[in-house]
Structure formats: C-alpha cells, structure tokens
Write a structure and sequence with these properties.
By secondary structure, this protein is of the alpha+beta class. It contains 1 helix and 3 strands.
C-alpha cells in the first residue's frame, strides 16, 4: 500500500477553496440537488452549503436593500 493512506478509494475534495470565514459566501453559483412538492433545495458550488432556494431569493433581496441604504 502506498504511503499517505491511499487505498485505491477516491476521496471527495471540494472543487474550489472555501471562502474566507470572515467574509460570508454570497452563493454566486448554485445547483439544484433536490425537489419536493413544495420545496427546492440548492447547493452552493463555492462553499457547498445546501439550503432551500427560497432562502437564496431572500438573501438576494436583503443584499439589494443593504446596498441601496448605503448609497
């Protein structure tokens, strides 16, 4: 067996580095991972967080409101 614990099994690694913990991820790229009768769940391709798609819409609305109040 090769050193480093490689046993022939593939390990899952994030495709991109996680964002700086002091700066919350804005979830710029998401993909649908599950749909239910009344809910749709998406995964952020940047930070790998899974949440309901309606939460993403709420985050976008809140962010827009914060930007407008800063101007």
């Amino acid at each position: 067996m090769p050193r480093g614990g490689a046993s022939g099994f593939m390990s899952s690694k994030p495709s991109s580095p996680r964002p700086n913990p002091s700066q919350p991820c804005k979830h710029p790229r998401v993909q649908v991972v599950s749909r239910d009768e009344d809910a749709e769940f998406v995964e952020c391709l940047e930070c790998r967080e899974i949440f309901e798609s309606s939460e993403l819409k709420d985050m976008t609305i809140e962010e827009r409101g914060e930007r407008e109040s800063e101007e």
